[in-house]
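User: Could you write out the 3D structure of this protein bound to adenosine-5'-triphosphate? I've included everything you need below.
Assistant: Certainly. Input first, then the structure.
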Amino acid sequence: MLEVAALRAGYGPIEVLRGIDLTVAAGEIVALLGSNGAGKSTLNNNISGLYRPFGGAIRFDGKDIAGTPSMRIVESGLVQVPEGRRVFPNLTVRDNLELGSYRRGKPTRARNLERVLTTFPRLRERLRQAAGTLSGGEQQMLAIGRGLMAEPRLLILDEPSLGLSPLLVEEMFALIGRLNADGLSILLVEQNVMQSLTIAHRAYVLENGRIALQGLAAELAEHPDLRKSYLGH
Ligand SMILES: Nc1ncnc2c1ncn2[C@@H]1O[C@H](COP(=O)(O)OP(=O)(O)OP(=O)(O)O)[C@@H](O)[C@H]1O
Ligand SMILES: [Mg+2]
């Protein structure tokens, strides 16, 4: 479904990603792991069309999308929930959600809204509340809900568990599992290594702009290099 090949990208003269190969097949959860500054968000933002890569290819459904305007990419079903929630604080929960679907017709929007509110009952209770007054966990739900409003087939989640309490982290991972069970393909960018490997099918570890490790999630969870780098034993 998604195929990234020999991707090089960065900012001005600085090359951050130095030849990335990565795929996500239909129905998969693929985890992208790596420490701060490894280049995870840079990769997402290039896939999402926010930046134009220096070189290499990004294919979605076989079509090269590198440098395509992000709006077109969203319309084709590849949707990113960016790091740090980024809801519009002064707009209501409802307006934030509807913005995720503004390119779709009214009946479709209403149906999408109903589906998202079924997934996140807490948001239904707060539809008229300003998004900036939601708790951190609720804002994360809103950000994901807004992504779902765009009818993704592949959803990129950039650190969805960041800043959540342990209980909410559990809930978040359970939710990601359910979305996937309903047929959504997911690229899960996380620093929460072991929990991500529990729900992912495959994983990549990004270090300094290169893929340092990759494989089946269950195998990576036992990999000595990964355990040493991320768990200290
Ligand atoms: N807009 C930008 N201009 C210049 N350099 C940038 C820009 N955004 C990111 N970088 C640099 O690119 C490198 C990779 O950053 P990136 O945000 O992709 O890392 P990350 O893996 O997502 O880290 P984190 O886990 O902290 O979110 C960092 O060295 C960062 O300083
Ligand atoms: Mg990041």
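The domain at 1-67+187-233 is CATH 3.40.50.300 (Rossmann fold).
User: Perfect, thank you.
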